[in-house]
Specification:
The protein has four helices and no strands. The protein is mainly alpha-helical. The longest helix has 41 residues.
């Protein structure tokens, strides 16, 4: 038998890794879909409130509030499929992540546009990519991830 430096992964392990990878990809797709829906919810809310004659600062703030609540519920139930009911602490972490990312993105975009003289559209795209990537990661691991002290799953394997 010749010496081989390659390690062969057993088929069952390959299948398990593949399913885990596929599940993660589908979760990312669901996150993106919720983001698109959330943009629509914000836009529709802001538009309808603007038609009522509210000041733009009021209707955009209310639009953000409605969109954040919608996004939290959709991410809880659809994206990350949490089986337990949403907790206040989870919502607090979600709001903290969302507001922090909004502020950071404004800083990134301002830095790119005002300091580095980047054109607006590419700078906005960079901000969107940052928000989406970091937002997914923080929501996946911190907001909706397994929390210490939570119920433990029992496995007989």
């Amino acid at each position: 038998m010749p010496f081989s430096t390659e390690y062969e992964v057993p088929e069952k392990s390959k299948l398990r890794m593949s399913r885990k990878f596929q599940n993660e990809i589908w979760m990312m797709v669901r996150y993106g879909f919720v983001g698109l829906l959330n943009t629509g919810v914000f836009s529709l809310t802001a538009y309808l409130l603007s038609r009522k004659g509210l000041h733009y600062a009021v209707y955009t703030a209310l639009g953000y509030i409605v969109a954040i609540v919608f996004s939290f519920l959709m991410n809880t139930l659809f994206t990350f499929r949490k089986s337990e009911s949403p907790k206040l602490g989870m919502f607090g972490r979600f709001v903290l992540v969302t507001i922090t990312l909004l502020i950071l993105v404004q800083g990134i975009q301002a830095g790119l546009i005002e300091i580095m003289n980047t054109k607006e559209v590419p700078a906005i795209i960079v901000g969107m990519l940052f928000y989406t990537g970091v937002g997914y990661t923080l929501n996946r691991l911190w907001v909706f991830g397994k929390q210490k002290g939570g119920p433990k799953k029992h496995c007989d394997n």
